Amino acid sequence: MRLLTLLCLCLLPLLSHAAHNTVLRDHPSPYFRSHADDSIHWNTFSATAFEQAKASGKPILISSGYSSCYWCHKMKQDTFSDKAVGETVNAGFIPIIVDRELEPEVDAYLQTIMEQQRGFGGWPLTVMLTPDALPIGGFNYTKADEFNATLQRFLNEWATNKTSIQEKAQAKANTLTQQRDAATTVADTTMPVDVLQAFLQHVSGAGDEEYGGFGDQEKFPNLPQLSALFTLHQLKPDKDLYAFLQTSLAALIGGGLRDHLGGGFFRYTDDRRWTHPHYEQMLYTQVLAAPLLIRAGVEFKQPAYLQAGREALLHTLTAFRRDDGLLRAGLSAVGGDGTAGGYYLWKPEQLSATVGKDWQNSVHNLLGEEADKVLPFVKVQGDAGKALREKLLSERRVRPLSSDDKALLGWNGLALNAFAAAKGLDPELQQAGEKLAAQLLALTKQDTLPRLIGEPAAGEAQFADRVYLAYGLAAWGKANEQSAFTDAARQLLHDTYQRYYQGKGWVQSEANPLLGEIAVPVIADSQLPSPSALWLVTVWQVADQDPVLRKIAEEISAILPNALRDNAFFHATHIAALVQHATQEKP
């Protein structure tokens, strides 16, 4: 009997690891599946894991990443698969892994913790919390030895100085809460002229007039900000704003952020000059860039912008569309050779074999002529250029490229908006939009909306998912004069308000074991537009026959100015929406 007991005790950790592995290996998230064999016995994000932390008194180690991220891939290989790291984490922590695309609200909170601690976030992101889920501190990519040493130092400190750590964690949590509370102060109903000025001042300070975009180091497209500036320029043309938009859009389509063979856009570049891309491609980048480029092409009479927007959406159909017509989340930065950008980059000898020894006469290297690998830009114009581009694409398509096949409800809603913006540009885009629109409309008739289409076990759609869906349905209905879509959008807007608006703010997800139900009046733009701003935008698009919904939107917008003044740059979508609405209401 004693032998049987000892055997059970010895097998228990193995059985526990097997259970965790099964949960991850069978999960619809490829990010989770890739971590099934880690040395760490990960839990998925659930109330059960947080209850386990409280019951055991162990701190929480929560890590957020996503499948297309190169450094997440490296962290898994270098650190989470390390045996010593696994032993430390499994013994001392309750480990939780998060797919940031399935839990965007959780990820946003973790990013805020890191920004408070270090001034920047990013992925992969690993944060330590107390057993009561109060923030202690976090890391981005860290190699195994350093990561393990840091965790062991912390556990030693936790064993001897737990009270002090908990008090500091509570102070950090209080600071985060105070930031939210400050934003809920009710403003007067003055139109946001000073808020607009604050936004333009922030834009002026952050804008890079020489190379376009924002910042003087790495360059993200910041599409919500550029879209807001374009809207403001349409409302009141300004030569300086026009020049900045032209510089930024030219950089967007002309530099290394764009895959000039395929037509898609990478997530960001590592340098100010838009030269060296970070190679993962996200669905949201394509479907947010395309409508802006199409609008700019029409407004500025620039065929190059229009063509780039069209190509981005055609690339979306080629690279992101699944067999069922829905759109996958992302394309990995990691090529089949295990290197960042391996799918997109060419060695000179490969180009010599494909194009000829004089390939430099027809192909330009976007990384710079001194780089040892080539990110191709076809210099030849006309039919010869098209033929060369297709030849390179044909050669490239045989290379392996991993993708994240999750069909996220909200991102597919944003895609539908992009297809609506492209109406009349291409029959293939119209047909794809029609199929996607029908699929999304059918989902609105279900009792429960899934965050991940076709995978109800992955969780129910939350605030942003529903708003992005309503936004896409409304845009498609308006562009194609189909009331069924605008009616569905209107109903979604009502349901979302009733479900997520509490007091004077939005709750971003329901019954969240980390976030609770904290209501905020305004949600900031990230690389995606603010869902609280798009809720207002969509209401004003579809509420002509719905005075109740319109009145709600007016009441919400009246309390926003105070919440928008601070960090106005990150409230671009809200500010442009309010200014546009005020202009339409009072010409």
UniProtKB/TrEMBL annotation:
Gene3D superfamilies: Glutaredoxin. It comes from the Bacteria. The keyword Methyltransferase does not apply. Pfam families: Thioredox_DsbH. Keywords: Signal. Residues 24-175 form the Spermatogenesis-associated protein 20-like TRX domain. Residues 1-18 form the signal peptide. The keyword Signal applies. This is DUF255 domain-containing protein. It comes from Thiothrix winogradskyi.
